[in-house]
Design goal:
Protein name: Alpha/Beta hydrolase protein
Order of helices and strands: HHHHHEEEHEHEHEHHHHEHEHH
Low-confidence stretches: 1-6, 219-230
Shape: globular
Distance between the termini: 30 Å
Strand order of the largest sheet: 1-2-4-3-5-6-7-8
CATH class of the largest domain: Alpha Beta
CATH topology of the largest domain: Rossmann fold
Largest sheet: 8 strands, mixed
CATH architecture of the largest domain: 3-Layer(aba) Sandwich
GO molecular function: hydrolase activity
Strand content: 5-15%
Keywords: Hydrolase, Membrane, Transmembrane, Transmembrane helix
Family: Belongs to the 'GDXG' lipolytic enzyme family.
CATH superfamily of the largest domain: Alpha/Beta hydrolase fold, catalytic domain
Organism: Russula ochroleuca
Helix content: 40-55%
Number of domains: 2
Number of strands: 8
Structural class: alpha/beta
Length: 377
């Protein structure tokens, strides 16, 4: 069984001894924070779920540098994928892409139906084990009839925008060149991954000459010199957005309203937005921040993505921005479904797997049903 390369863009940066000491010393208060969180916060949840949410709020809520956060949270996506494969007895199937990106297949490679997933993590964290638990749930639901490919993209701040969008274009082009029909591809993402899906949609509607352009199936990979417009004979199968990050600001009331409820405290939200803004240039601003676009920007979206599902949590800081983006999308895509989970937090659908409660929520049922209909299973 081949091992994935470890030179992808989500490779851990070097850490000093000081970073390690500071991070480890701060963890001494974690048990107390979790105990308080279980009894004071997240009413109506199981103790395991409340403990997990409290631990995330503690780890993200203290003033930390980006390096310290990565030290506390990050194992590379390639490492997690290899660990999942060993545990599951599955083959490691990794397709290398340009500029250090890779596609990790969960289950067999397929050309008939593919779910391309772009993971979240504020563009600074790699994938989490919860993603692979979710993918296994999907494979169980669909009896292996769907190919699931997770994009391993480069992370900020070491790799600023628009590198992640470039790598996403390469991933989609790779699937097309393998013979997958656009109508049989669902492009999905959570949080930053949802933002990346919308960046791709912007590039499809408004091809920017500084970025690679998608073409119909080609015998050779797409290159930077490609400047033609997208001319697929058919649209993609659909777009799935789970708690998508649509604006790099905290101007909406839901950030204040949910500041003690969501898993991402205000301090962490400020840090994340400051990091991603570093890579935004005036010429690409509209491509990279989908919630801040001029009127008419999304005209024609329904011809590219005729089906859209957006999920979010009632108690997440992003919910007002998500609903605002959902309204814009619904104007262009008649078949748009929006589900706000009562009492849900950011990425509730995925985060539930961390406490062994995946597959239980109404959001899971809606996503599974929507994917089944979109892929004609």
């Amino acid at each position: 069984m081949a091992s994935p390369k470890d030179d992808h863009g989500d490779t851990l940066p070097p850490f000093s001894l000081w970073h390690k000491i500071r991070m480890l010393s701060s963890l001494l208060a974690l048990p107390f924070a979790v105990a308080v969180g279980v009894f004071r916060e997240n009413k109506g949840r199981s103790w395991r779920r409340a403990a997990h949410i409290a631990s995330l709020r503690f780890l993200l809520g203290k003033p930390r540098t980006v390096l310290e956060l990565k030290l506390g949270f990050m194992v590379t996506t390639a490492e997690l994928y290899a660990a999942w494969a060993r545990k599951s007895g599955a083959d490691v199937l990794t397709d290398e892409l340009p500029e250090g990106a890779a596609l990790h297949w969960i289950g067999p490679r397929r050309e008939d139906r593919v779910l391309l997933f772009l993971h979240g993590g504020a563009y600074i964290f790699s994938g989490r084990v919860e993603y692979f638990d979710m993918f296994e749930s999907f494979q169980k639901e669909y009896k292996g009839a769907v190919g699931i490919a997770m994009l391993n993209y480069s992370l900020a701040p070491e790799h600023p925008f628009p590198k992640q969008l470039r790598q996403t274009v390469f991933a989609v082009q790779h699937l097309l060149d393998r013979g997958v029909s656009p109508s049989n591809i669902i492009i999905a993402g959570d949080s930053a991954g949802g933002n990346l899906v919308l960046q791709l949609a912007s590039q499809l509607l408004h091809p920017h000459p500084s970025l690679p352009i998608l073409r119909p199936r080609q015998p050779h990979p797409v290159t930077d010199t490609d400047t033609s417009s997208l001319e697929f004979p058919e649209p993609f199968g659909g777009m799935l957005l789970i708690s998508p990050w649509t604006e790099f600001n905290m101007d909406t009331p839901s950030f204040r309203r949910n500041r003690t409820r969501d898993i991402i405290p205000l301090h962490a939200s400020r840090l994340f937005t400051d990091i991603v803004r570093q890579g935004i240039t005036p010429t690409l601003h509209q491509h990279l921040e989908p919630g801040i676009t001029p009127p008419g920007w999304w005209n024609g979206l329904g011809r590219v993505f005729p089906r859209v599902l957006i999920t979010a949590g009632e108690h997440e800081g992003l919910v007002d921005q998500i609903q605002r983006m959902a309204a814009v999308i619904a104007e262009q895509v008649q078949d748009t479904t929006v589900f706000i989970l009562p009492g849900g937090v950011h990425e509730d659908f995925i985060d539930a797997y961390a406490s062994g409660e995946g597959e239980r929520g109404d959001d899971y049922k809606i996503v599974v049903s929507w994917l089944s209909a979109s892929l004609k299973l």
